[in-house]
């Protein structure tokens, strides 16, 4: 197909998060493993797994064959009916989730899972308030974007009533001014306790947390922070909701991000790695306590495509690949190697302020001064736009990464090898010469 003609057709497509006059996408043509090729035949190393979702890599034959078999048998049936793939996937999810998170409501994506978790929490508790953190992202639909604690929320305000924000841990740039995790004694948790006391803890339906903050910087909390959230919820009858849309299914080196903290939430929401993006699918997962409530009371929620047979068959095949190829273990092992490379980059480049990672999920945070931690681009590009110049250099060198503000995100397919990490990090190393050049 002629590339110019495809570009002409593409003018009819509306793209998110930017003015349409600024849209000039690279037209992708095919993908295999950790690589994608554009319509011109140029190869890119997909070091962001699509959009943090293609965990098993592109074009995995086991997944594609399972999809073909399901399409030949049954693609869709109304959600009030049961199917083998829906039942099997729910059972397989219950086998890998922590604790008693055994009951699954299927959605089309992560944002819809969040929306339904908001409703379930309010119905279960009879309360209205929903707590969520600054520097968080929960999705672009009405309720999910209100829970979000970054500039993507601004255009949707005032948003859903009853949502309250609080500061979570961000040890590199502590909002309370502490120099280190060792000296702060989790003052962010103490501040949350005070905020809840003043706000009325018995009026709060749920606290939503990303166990590891995703597109606001791969912010990794101290070990006891999430235990403290769990305790606050238990003491006050509050539903703890873990947003695992990005962290789930091996991204962090364990099945779920919250597994690093030995905490079991009441509700978990997942998507992305559930099907590795081969078909859209999300899920809201309840523990036994939530399930028993709705065993006696109707859950007022439903979706035309809930438990879509093809999507569920795709999810089944993905979980089989995770087990068969030991991808959760590979995420942990390759993640250790990736972290070593990131530490080397921090030592080499004066524009690198911090590097953070869990498994194959990492972030490079840029700075104008490693000693003062002064930002280079600033929050929401308040100082300058760095990401455009950085991204263009990465694309030119054949590497796809997601960048914004002072943040450069790394999240390759979980199938990646050390040699492929070396290939990508050599390109990042070269691109960081540009950010170094911005420092006077």
From TrEMBL:
Keywords: Aminotransferase, Pyridoxal phosphate, Transferase. It comes from candidate division CSSED10-310 bacterium. The keyword Transferase applies. PANTHER family: AMINOTRANSFERASE, AMINOTRANSFERASE CLASS-III. Signal peptide: none annotated. CDD domains: OAT_like. InterPro entries: Aminotrans_3, Aminotrans_3_PPA_site, PyrdxlP-dep_Trfase, PyrdxlP-dep_Trfase_major, PyrdxlP-dep_Trfase_small. SUPFAM superfamilies: PLP-dependent transferases. Belongs to the class-III pyridoxal-phosphate-dependent aminotransferase family. This is Aminotransferase class III-fold pyridoxal phosphate-dependent enzyme. The keyword Transferase applies.
């Amino acid at each position: 197909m002629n590339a110019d003609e495809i570009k002409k057709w593409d003018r009819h497509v509306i793209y998110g998060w930017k003015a349409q006059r600024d849209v000039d996408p690279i037209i992708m043509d095919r993908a295999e493993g950790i690589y994608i090729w554009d319509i011109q035949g140029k190869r890119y190393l997909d070091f962001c797994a699509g959009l943090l979702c293609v965990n098993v890599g592109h074009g995995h034959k086991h997944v594609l064959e399972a999809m073909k078999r399901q399409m030949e048998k049954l693609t869709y049936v109304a959600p009030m009916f049961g199917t083998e793939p829906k039942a099997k996937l729910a059972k397989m999810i219950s086998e890998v989730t922590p604790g008693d998170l055994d009951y699954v409501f299927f959605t089309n994506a992560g944002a819809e899972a969040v929306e339904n978790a908001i409703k379930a929490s309010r119905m279960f508790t009879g309360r209205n308030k929903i707590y969520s953190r600054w520097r968080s992202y929960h999705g672009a639909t009405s309720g999910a974007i209100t829970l979000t604690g970054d500039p993507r929320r601004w255009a949707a305000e005032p948003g859903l009533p009853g949502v309250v924000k609080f500061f979570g841990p961000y040890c590199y740039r502590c909002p309370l001014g502490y120099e280190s995790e060792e000296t702060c004694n989790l003052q962010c948790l103490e501040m949350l306790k005070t905020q809840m006391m003043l706000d009325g803890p018995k009026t709060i339906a749920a606290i939503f947390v990303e166990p590891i903050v995703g597109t606001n910087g791969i912010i990794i909390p101290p070990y006891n922070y999430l235990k403290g959230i769990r305790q606050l919820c238990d003491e006050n009858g509050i539903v703890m909701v873990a947003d695992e849309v990005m962290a789930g299914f091996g991204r962090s080196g364990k099945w779920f991000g919250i597994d690093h903290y030995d905490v079991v939430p009441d509700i978990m929401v997942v998507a992305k790695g559930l099907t590795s993006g081969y078909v859209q699918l999300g899920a809201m997962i309840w523990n036994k306590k939530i399930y028993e409530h709705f065993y006696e009371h109707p859950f007022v929620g439903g979706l035309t495509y809930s438990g879509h047979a093809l999507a569920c068959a795709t999810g089944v095949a993905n979980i089989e690949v995770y087990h068969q190829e030991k991808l959760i273990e590979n995420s942990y092992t390759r993640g250790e190697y990736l972290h070593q490379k990131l530490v080397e980059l921090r030592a080499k480049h004066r524009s690198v302020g911090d590097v953070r990672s869990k498994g194959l999920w990492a972030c490079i945070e840029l700075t104008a001064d490693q000693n003062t931690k002064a930002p280079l681009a600033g929050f929401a590009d308040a100082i300058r736009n760095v990401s455009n110049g950085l991204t263009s250099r990465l694309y030119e060198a054949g590497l796809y990464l997601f960048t914004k503000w002072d943040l450069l995100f790394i999240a390759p397919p979980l199938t990646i090898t050390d040699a492929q990490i070396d290939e990508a990090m050599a390109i990042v190393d070269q691109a960081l010469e540009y950010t170094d050049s911005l420092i006077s």
